[in-house]
Amino acid sequence: MKFLWFHLMPYKELPDDFREKHPSVWVDIHSSLFDPKRAHRMYNEFLDELEFAAQCGFDAICCNEHHSNGYGLMPSPNLVASALARRTTDTAICVLGNSLALYNPPTRVAEEFAMIDCISGGRLIAGFPVGTPMDTTYAYGVNPSQLRERYYEAHDLVLRAWTEKETFAFNGRFNQQRYVNIWPRPIQQPHPPIWIPGAGSVETWRWAAEMDYVFCYLSYYGYKMAQNVMRGFWEEMARLGKDRNPYRAGFAQVVGVAESRQQALDLYTEPAEYFYGRCLHVDVRFAGPPGYVTEATQRAGIESQVKIAAQGAAPSGPSTNVAVHLQILGRISRGSRPRTARPHPPSAQLVT
Known about the structure:
alpha/beta, TIM Barrel
């Protein structure tokens, strides 16, 4: 098992009455809540925490992409990854990831990931998420019924850009380029390892299994809600006749460290409530646009965690012992952090 430290970089100063006065943390969150001077301090604290996680010996440090929100302040995770590539030495840098369907042209992803791989000396893990409906459909205006087609085509273009030695022309439905010839090229050959983050879509885990990519499931609400998804992934692996190598899958989970149950509650109740109460306060109108959820996923009875959060159906708050049920593996940091002489970087763990 390997342990990766994943930072969302949430805006840490949403007001106490955020849920009551603001309909959503995503898409139409009001700009008056954002203080650039405070964000300057936050970004530098977040980078310090990621660097400290690398010093602590985590196998990788992770960042990701979101737009128009207070949940995660990384519209460009590649900027974060490039800073970490320069400031760390032997820890893998996992970008989970670039939402391929949002890039025009997608060769920008191939170029920037290759650049990060070169700066880091071949430490990049390339993540390719389909993207949340808030980011893709509402913030960036992508037709949800075309999202996966755009995603698959962009993936094919990026992969060819990394692996083909000669300049080539690409003529797809959504992307047409007469000359594809990226400089720089990645150190890792034939390309950096590819991980596919997902929140439960059947097509996502099936495609990851077929392509021999690592499937990474992000769970807000613990392993029990994740069982159907991970069971489906391993059943697909068995159907394809592939081995059950545990490194084929990752599981992202908020975890907390404490010496006792009471200390865990004292340390993590406030940040846990901040994250679940404010950072996951998504208006239901943004959670499930028509055409985003595929027929196979609906037939499998798998619900989007974003939609569950938007509907307020999942448990949250200290009565659910959020901090206690997460095992002693790492720290949580969705909002505030406990005062210590040297604050350990808190965040989600991605276990592979």
